[in-house]
Specification:
It is a single chain. About 65% of the residues lie in helices and about 0% in strands. The chain has helices spanning about 1-20, 25-40, 50-60, 65-75, 85-95, 100-115, 125-130, 140-150, 160-169; strands at about 120, 155-160. It has a two-stranded antiparallel sheet with strand order 1-2. It is an all-alpha fold. The longest helix has 20 residues, at about 1-20. The protein has two domains: about 1-95, Recoverin, domain 1 (Orthogonal Bundle), CATH 1.10.238; about 100-169, EF-hand (Recoverin, domain 1, Orthogonal Bundle). Helix 2 crosses helix 5 and helix 3 (about 50-60) runs antiparallel to helix 7. The protein contains nine helices and two strands. InterPro entries: CALM/Myosin/TropC-like, EF-hand-dom_pair, EF_Hand_1_Ca_BS, EF_hand_dom. GO terms for molecular function: calcium ion binding. Keywords: Calcium, Repeat. This is Calmodulin-like protein Fap272.
């Protein structure tokens, strides 16, 4: 538990450092980029390697070839280090077409989790998507995540609860 809190403090310090560098980007957008970056960064060293990129791309339903991954890394890795830091990641994300309505990003993310399209995310759906992005969670961890977000205590996460959960991340 203490380790988790320490990690959260480290994450916030790192985010604050980058926030100063990218002050021209609205914080809510930068925070979205940061959360996405942390999903890619499996080992938590604030650097993305090609294998981490591949894992998340597959989790999002894409199947890039090794060559495509190498091209992506080369395009993004501006300093040629073999890693993508958050600054380079922001550069990549800033080039992506974004919907005029920022809520569309959240709706799209919710639909990605809500595999059966019933408007709710259950434990199996949450575990499936987390596993696909490389997170290994126990049943207890999945249940804890749902319980934390599940305001109406029905055992599922609806869209409103999902929005609230994402806003606190």
């Amino acid at each position: 538990m203490e380790k988790e809190r320490e990690r959260e403090r480290d994450d916030e310090k790192e985010f604050d450092r980058w926030k100063k560098e990218f002050s021209q980007i609205p914080e809510i957008i930068l925070r979205e980029y940061w959360e996405a970056f942390k999903l890619f960064d499996k080992d938590g060293n604030y650097l993305i390697i090609k294998e981490e990129l591949a894992t998340v791309m597959r989790g999002l339903g894409q199947t890039p070839t090794e060559e495509e991954l190498s091209i992506m890394m080369t395009e993004v890795d501006k300093d040629g280090s073999g890693y993508v830091d958050f600054g380079e990641f922001v550069g990549l994300m800033s080039k992506q077409p974004s919907p005029a309505d920022p809520e569309e990003d959240l709706r799209r993310a919710f639909r990605m989790f809500d595999r059966d399209g019933n408007g709710q995310i259950n434990a199996a759906e949450l575990k499936h998507i987390m596993t696909n992005i490389g997170e290994t969670l126990t049943e207890e961890q999945v249940d804890d995540m749902i319980q934390e977000a599940d305001i109406d205590q029905d055992g599922m996460i609806n869209y409103e609860e999902f929005i609230r959960m994402m806003a606190t991340k």
